[in-house]
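ok so heres the complex, two chains, lmk if somethin looks off
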Amino acid sequence: MADKTKLARQFIQAIPHAQELGMVLEEIGDGTALISMPYDQKLVGDPQSGVIAGGAVSALMDTCCGAAVMCHPDAPGGTATIDLRIDYMRAATPGQAITTRATCHHITRNVAFVRAVAMDDDIDRPVATASGAFTVENGF
Amino acid sequence: MSRPRPEHIQVVKQRRDAALKALLDSVPYIQFLNVSFDRRGDELTAQLNFSEKHIGNPFLPAIHGGVTAAFLEITAVITLNWSHLWERIESGALDPDEMAKGILPRQPKTIDFTVDYLRSGLPRDAYARATISRAGRRYASVHVEAWQDHKDKLFAQASGHFLMPQDHDKS
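and the predicted structre for the whole thing:
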């Protein structure tokens, strides 16, 4: 179990695009992952408001969901996204980091089901939610 | 009943290309991901110019699912905005020079976006085109398809809903 979490942690931390976005793996284990992404000018999608692009939030959600799958006790190895739906509830506040918590709430031999929520400093009002299906791979 | 003489080809091209460039240059995230657009008349094709920083799984290697999602969403928003602004660009109501200075109309906002991952994204350039299924006054529905080597072998597709900027919104 601890080994699986360690492996998942190493894998997530080795993802070039996650590093590029400055993602930090805050918590991982037992099918749940928490990843934060600092505010950065280069990720802005709306120049007038300074709000982070939806695509950057998607990348964070996708990474966090994958991490949740890999650290699930029944997951034998890596994973890939089959589909991911994101609902954008409100604009993230400019200047604040975005944090995502993803939970792999069900897993079979072939498919893992994941839900995630993204927040800024105001954790009571989610910025976005996601739900997706992921593959269950034997290796990485 | 003589129609006005058509504008010179360079005038038309310069206006459209300048307006599109202003839209793209204004968004830091589009520059960060290195997405460019090819224009044929009003039709746009997006191109994700591959970089090692797009990699999600270094073992395969494959493009990060989040990069694919972001690429498709950029294609959808830009295509929708472009189509929404087209009349005003053509009529001269929007001045490309002013747009380049950052005086831009508000962009559509994503309500939801669903991505289907059909194949793993190979470490090379990718292309995408968006189709506007419905452009309403308040809401729009957009479908996007992305491919790499073969146009008919999509590696991802997506559909999403967008909230259109309202007239009472500033600028």
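quick notes: The radius of gyration of chain B is 17 Å. thats all i got rn
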